[in-house]
Amino acid sequence: MSHEPASFLELLARGAATEAYDRPVRLARASGAGPEALAELEEAKQLALRVRAELEGRRRREAELSALFETAHDLAGLRDLDAVLRAIVQRARSLLGTEVAYLSLNDPVAGDTYMRVTEGSVSARFQQVRLGMGEGLGGLVAQTARPYVTDDYFGDARFQHTRTIDTAVRDEGLVAILGVPLSLGAQVIGVLFAADRRARVFEREQVALLCSFAAHAAVAIDTANLLGETRSALAELERANGIIREHSAVIERASEVHDRLSELVLHGGGVHDVAHAVSEVLGGTVAFTEERAGAAPGADGHAVREGDDWVAAVSAGGETLGALVLHGRPELDPVDQRTLERAALVTSLLLLARRSAGEAEQRVRGELLDDLLDAPDRDRLLLRERAARLRTDSEAPHVVLAARVDRAGGPAVPDAGGRESADRQRLWSAATHLAATRRGLASARDGGTVLLLPLGPGESAADLARQTAHGLGSTLREPVTVGASAPVRAPLDRPDQVAVAYAEARRCLDALRLLHRSGQGAAAEDLGFLGLLLADSRDIDGFVDRTVGQVVAYDRRRGTDLVRTLDAYFASGMSPARTKDALHVHVNTVAQRLERVGRLLGPDWQSPSRALEIQLALRLHALAD
Question: Most CB contacts within 10 A, which of 46, 134, 212, 599?
Answer without folding.
Answer: 212
